[in-house]
Amino acid sequence: MDIVPYRDLKIKENVFILWLKSFGWPGSAGWLANFKKYETRIGNGPVGMCGLIDGKIVGFVGIMVIPTRTRHGEIENVGGIYAVAVRPSYMRQGIGRKLLDASENYMRQQGMKLSFLTTSRSIVAFQWYCDVGYEVVETVDNYPYMYKVFDPPRSVSRKKSADKKNKLNMKEVQKLFDWYSDKHCGFVIRNLRELKSREMTDVFSKKLSIMVDGGYALLKGDCDSVQYKEILARNQKTYRELIKLAEAKAKYAAVAICPFDSKAQKAFQKARYQTDYGNYGVLMHKQLTGVTFSDFYDDSFMFSELDSF
Fold first, then answer.
1. For 187-201, how does the pLDDT look when each residue is reduced to its tens digit (9 = 90+)?
2. Deepest in the core among 34, 104, 108, 293, taking most CB within 10 A?
3. In whole numbers, what is the pLDDT of the chain averaged over residues?
4. DSSP state of 154
5. What value does the mean pLDDT take over residues 204-217?
6. What's the CA dihedral at 95, 97, 101, 102 to 10 degrees?
7. What is the pLDDT of residue 13?
8. For the domain that residue 294 is a member of, what is the CATH number?
9. Torsions phi, psi of 110, nearest 5?
10. Could you tell me if 68 and 153 lie in one domain?
11. Is 258 helix (H, G, I), strand (E, B) or coil?
12. 100 and 153, same structural domain?
């Protein structure tokens, strides 16, 4: 098997049937080229390592270059592994392991000391990642889900005037995120282009999301319910206002996926949301050199649902 970085492939289109089979992602080389303009975590690297047998792509391991802030306030680039896939007819031949090794070697050559990935305990790959040296980041694993079921169902607000008043201002979203994350280490470096990339991949809906003075809620709708993909505010009063506005958009239920701010968790509790600990979705890390996770980060480590990859 030959291993070639995606950016060096002469014919790139064949990788997308692999992604479609593995993850249900439709796409094209043209779409990815446009996406890389916004998703700097991919745009600054080789995109991924491709395994070829007789010129046919049989496997892929994606590579991200992710800037993080250490507990000492320094910027540290770490690697990110995503979209690990092998063609079904080529499984159990060690292809995934060889491509992962090649990806981690690339990271080492670039001076990265840690590799991260996000996955789910509910899939077979989780145990494989454990076997090859990845460990769960406990700080993120301890984030709760907060949920509320409306019984009877609520009537959904259709007031266009309210939507216009609370329209998202992405520059203000970025300012608030920077204000909060300045006190934390970890995945706290983000810019407007990256917010655009999350919108492009439907991580949140800009149309559904809301903003008030001193706070925002990035939302996604599903099954006539609302998911808080990220919520951040300067104080409890603003959190309560955001929750009230978000609930007006949900008929059956609302769920906050791993809110990282303790003030947000308290606001949800006061709004009678149930708290559920223990997550299937996890952030994992692996040492690439002798440097450990705790050498770089402490309990202020921060990771948002928007940062999943």
1. 999 999 999 999 999
2. 104
3. 95
4. P
5. 97
6. 20
7. 87
8. 3.40.630.30
9. -90, 5
10. no
11. coil
12. no
State both tokens at 41. Answer: 């975590």
Same domain, 202 and 292: no
Reply yes or no: is the peptide bond before residue 152 cis, omega within 30 of 0: yes
Against a cut of 0.70, is the pTM above it? yes
Q: How confident is the model at residue 164, as a pLDDT?
A: 74
User: In terms of domains, do 56 and 91 share one?
Assistant: yes
**127 and 202 housed in the same domain:** no
Specify the pLDDT at position 306: 95
Same-domain check for residues 267 and 156: yes
Same domain, yes or no: 186 and 227? yes
Q: How many domains does the chain divide into?
A: 2
Say how far residue 38 (Cα) sits from the centre of its chain: 15
Residue 177 burial (CB < 10 Å; 0-12/13-18/19+)?
buried
CA dihedral 8, 9, 12, 16 (to 10 degrees): -90
pLDDT tens profile 150-160: 999 988 866 65
Helices (H), the chain: 15-23, 29-35, 40-43, 95-109, 125-131, 138-141, 160-165, 170-181, 192-200, 236-247, 262-270, 293-296
Per-residue pLDDT, 229: 98
Which has the closest alpha carbon to 146: 269, 242, 235, 238? 269
132 with 19, same domain: the answer is yes
Asked if residues 4 and 14 have their Cβ atoms less than 8 Å apart, the reply is no
Q: What is the span of the domain harbouring residue 271?
A: 145-276
